[in-house]
Amino acid sequence: MSLALQNREFTVPVETARRLALRQFLMNRAATVGAICLLVFCLIAVAAPLIAPYDPAAIRLAEKLHSPSLAHWLGTDYFGRDVLSRLIWGSRVSLTVGVAVVAFALLTGIPFGLIAGYAGGRTDNFLMRLMDGFLTFPPLLLGVAIVGLLGPDIQNVMLALGIVQMPVFARIVRSATLSVKKETYIVASRALGAGVMRIVAHILGNIMSAIVVQITIAFAAAVIAEASLSFLGLGVQPPTSSWGRDLAEARRFMADAPWLFLAPTGAIMICVMSINFVGDGLRDALQPRSWRPRTTSRKES
Fold this sequence. Notes:
Elements: E1 5-6, E2 11-12, H1 14-27, H2 29-46, H3 48-51, H4 83-119, H5 121-135, H6 139-150, H7 154-180, H8 184-191, H9 196-206, H10 208-231, H11 243-250, H12 259-285
Antiparallel strand pairs: 1-2
Helix pairs in contact: 1-12, 2-4, 2-12, 4-5, 4-7, 4-10, 4-12, 5-7, 6-7, 7-10, 10-11, 10-12, 11-12
């Protein structure tokens, strides 16, 4: 992604622009804390087999509904399963779903948006009406309908949530493409005989800031949607651990064992807030006006 900023007033080299963007991001304390928390979640998900103290699916009825202790830091559930272990393995499910959903939405939504924005005319009208067809349904309802049609399975959840996010990326990319393709350097490239693929590559490089911010929004939405579908029984199936599935099983014991409800709720809240903080930081860091050098004011006449 090119962060070089050029206009009539000044030019910022690519490397300098990257340093300025990184500095702007690190100056945002909430974004920095969010990035650290998100990194911790990712490390926990990757190292789940190594750091989980117990087998998350192992049933120990003699230890059911034990309150938090040194043996079980977050207590145990109705089947005697360690809540912390299930929380650690559940992070792997949630983050995997988030990555898969974002990847699917990027691979499908970006081409649709680029083609619609660059071609215009009937092609633009057809593709956007197709995307509008998906947007007419509430996102979660559309996800429930797709999973209900395909069957409750984690792969179907990823596909359903990817389809839900696809039109959002397509519309954002299309809007940014319509704006960028009118810029002088794009017009000059076309006049000099640059091929379509080269011009599209230039456009894509200059709209990546909007795409990056949308990635964080889609990631957070995917984590919440996966938890919601698992809570409804349409996501991962027992005995696989999932934050949403654990919430569903904790409903019956909220009065007697509140730790069962608080643990996955806290994990979802911290994870989603971290992603949102990172998104806010990236939005500010990738906006050149927030870090560009001051220009010399015109002399008063």
